[in-house]
Amino acid sequence: MSFPIDIILIALVAIFLVLQLRRVLGRRHGEERQRPDPFAHPDPAAKGDDKVVDLPRREQPDPALPRGVDVVSKGGPAEAGLAQVKIADASFDPRGFVSGARQAFEMIVSAYAQGDTKTLRPLLSDEVYERFASAIKQRQESKETLETGLVGFEKSEITAAEMRGSEARVTVKFVTEQINVARSADELIVDGNPNEVTRVTDVWTFARDTNSSNPNWLLVATEEPAEG
Known about the structure:
Layout: H1 5-25, H2 78-88, H3 94-114, H4 117-120, H5 126-141, E1 145-164, E2 167-183, E3 189-192, E4 198-209, E5 218-223
Antiparallel strand pairs: 1-2, 2-3, 2-4, 4-5
C-alpha cells in the first residue's frame, strides 16, 4: 500500500517542526524557575542570590473619609489636647481616629434604632449604655418603632481632646443628613417624615485607657451642640 507523496511531505514537515520546538523550548523536568508574580508578597524566609527589596507601601485613603476633609481646625483648642494624646499613645492618628469614629457612629445609630443592645454593649461606656438601653426598653414597651437612615456625613471634626490621667478623651462633632421616622404601635407616624432628609448635629466623646492593650474606644458622653 502506497501513500500519496503530498501526505508524506506534510508528515515530514510536522515532525521537523516538533523537533525544532522541543530544541528551542526544551523539556519540562520540574526544576524550571517560576515566573515572578508581581502581586505576590516577598517571602522573608526565602534564601538565594536574588535580593528582594520590600518597598514601603503608601497608605490607601479611607473611602469613607474623602481627601481634603479637615478632621481638626488648625490652631483650634483641640490641637493642644491632641498633642497630649499623641504623647500618651504614639500610634494615635487624628484622621484614622475620625474614620473609625464615623463607622462607630453609623453602627450605634443603626443599632439604637433597631433596639440591638447586643451590638451597642461593647461600643458604649456603662453610663451611656444604661441610658440607651433604657430608652430602647421604653420604646419597646410602648410598641413604638424607630426607623433611621443615615444619608451621609456633612462634617466630622474633632472639637476637643484631653488626657485624664491615662485616659484619652476625644470629642467629635458629627453633622449628618438623616431620615428619621417614629411610628406608634398601629404604624402611625408620630414623629419625622419618611420623605424628608433632615440635618442633624451630634457631639460625641470617645475615651480609651492608653495604658491598656485594648485598642478600642468607647462612647462615654453625648451632648447637645452649642447654639450658634
